[in-house]
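Box 4.2: Ligand-aware structure prediction
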Amino acid sequence: MNDNPAQKIRLIMELRRQGISNTDVLSAVERVPRDVFVPPTFRDRAYENIALPIASGQTISQPYIVAYMTQLLNLDKRRKVLEIGTGSGYQTAILARLSRRVYSIERYRNLLETAEKAFEELKITNITARVGDGYKGWPEQAPFDRILVTAAAEEVPQALIDQLAPDGIIALPVGRDSTSQHILRITRDEAGNLSEEVLLPVRFVPMVQGVAE
Ligand code: SAH
């Protein structure tokens, strides 16, 4: 581990300046060692506020984006969460600290296996992850109180809307290319009505149909 405390404090201060005010989210960022989720060659940069490459041409998201999307979900320990795009598993581990259980789907088996080793190393036990196509969600485990997507689809996948519980929240990047992507937050009220907010412009890797070879 390269759990550099000075760099970590600097990162937390930067996130606060950028508008992350939820103290549970900030303390999750403080407690989850990002260096464990970053490939060895980039480990000394783990606490910089930047996205970094992981295997299979994917990226571990920027800490600010992880914190921002987590904050949008307004989590607490009663919530059952679905995440699409496990990737490195860093966002999954943050969600796991703040919710009851996280179900996470990744289309690359090698990424999933590396992420699961990190969960084991950190003794995180409330994550269930599998290889699959996130466009289909996880019908056997639905409904979910919260859904977080970490790859950009062109449109909101209907299966995910269908698997959202009443009083539920989805946060996801949507948009055709990197110049037009935005984070959306979709809320379903007690009566089942949906409302949508278009928030931050972002640049995520694309959400791709089907499981990777
Ligand atoms: N939260 C991750 C982000 C990884 S990048 C992290 O911070 O490390 C987005 C991930 O979504 C990639 O690993 C990519 O393989 C995955 N992905 C893309 N399309 C998908 C799909 N249809 N189903 C499941 N995972 C998908």
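In the box above, the bound molecule is S-adenosyl-L-homocysteine. The beta strands are 52-53, 59-60, 80-84, 101-106, 127-131, 144-149, 164-174, 182-188, 194-201.
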